Amino acid sequence: MSHVLRCLFVLVAVSILALGLRVLGQPPQTRESTDRPSVRLTPSQRAALERQRHRIVEAGVIESAKTTEFRSTLGSATTLISIVPDGTIVEKGTLLAVLDAAPLQQDLTKQRVIVNEAEDTLRNAEAEFQAARVAAEQDVPIAKLEVRVAELAKSRYLAKGGEFDCQLQKIREKVNRLTLKPDQQPDSKSSADQQSQEVTPHQKSAEQARVDLAAAQAEQRLLEEFIKPHQTATLELAVRKAKAKLQRLEQTAQKAIRDGESAVRKAESALKVARERVEKTQDEIQQTRILAPHAGVVVHVAPSTRRSAGPVLEPGATLQPRQLLLKMPDLSRLQARIGVHESQIARVKVGQAVSLQLDAFPNREFSGRVIEIDRTPQPQSWLTGNNGSTYGVAVEITEPSDAMKLGMTVAAEFERPTK
Predict the structure, then answer these.
(1) Could you tell me which residues are beta bridge partners of residue 413?
(2) 3-state SS of the chain: helix, strand, coil percent to 5?
(3) Contact 115/274 with Cβ under 8 angstroms?
(4) Taking a C-beta distance cutoff of 8 angstroms, is the pair 298, 373 a contact?
(5) Mean pLDDT across 138-143
(6) What's the rounded mean pLDDT across residues 377-382?
(7) Residues with Cβ < 8 Å from 344, sequence gap 6 or more?
(8) Rounded CA separation 20/51 (Å)
(9) How confident is the model at residue 296 (pLDDT cuts 50, 70, 90)?
(10) Angle (deg, nearest 10), helices 2-24 and 43-53
(11) Are the C-beta atoms of residues 374 and 405 closer than 8 Å to each other?
């Protein structure tokens, strides 16, 4: 109250002095002649008025310069199981709150089943891929050997000096051997004379020779005109079949290897995703147990829509994703948070000097400097109404007192720039 009365007194004095200045500043010809004495300012009054015109006085509270916030990091709404009371002083590692982890445990069980299935799928894919590689390594060389055998068979029969040439040579020699010489030809007698005479052994031999020659010539013609083309086509067909089989095996083996590699990569990717989900769920389960990272005091945070009194957070409450639950201010680092009205915020600068007075220390003044200015206004309460926006200004206290406490009210006087 004493600080407020002082401020009111200063404002009244400033108003009186301003009125006097306006009167003194009038030109002599327009000033009304009265019997009242003229008002004059002493140098000290003028200096005090000038200082007052360049100062801003606003109110605030003492807060921690470093505050750890705890939120519900789960991706869905959950239930609060337990929480330490508001204002509890805790040590590092103290259990602050427990969130319902039952749904996450159920998800973790399902995800582990998915991981096991993904591992089985990967093992099967790797086995099939290995089988495809083994089949390619075994079947393709055999097929290549079959092609080689077919080509050799064809060459053995058709090449110069091959089976066909040998067979043809034998038949030609036989034909040449059976060809009759002129003195071996039978006499050209009439058929009647031949029939009337008996056939001699020499005539029988000649006749057999002619029969054998005709047979040899027929065999030669069969070999050259029928057997050779047929055998050539058969051997060529065997070569082409062997090559086609080799091509099919190579294509099948390559496709099986590609499909096997793709299946392995797909199974590896699915297993990786499944394991990452398990790890994420395990992390979320760990986050359902909120531990104090350092010693300090626990402060409950009310939801922004809460208006009723009573416990801010209590077991059984439903928590929304990313909802702010607790704060733990660092009591060893304190600063002042000043709410500056929108009409004055443009005149507050980072680094600006500030004088601080606390009701808890009426006979002491603390010095500080502006270290941060909020870019967004402070939320307005439904009780305070709309009297214009205020912006939070963080003031570093140069020499804070060990007796300072969080939430203490403070009056801040800013040295305002002259321009």
Answers:
(1) 57, 355
(2) 50, 20, 30
(3) yes
(4) no
(5) 93
(6) 75
(7) 56, 58, 414
(8) 17
(9) confident
(10) 110
(11) no
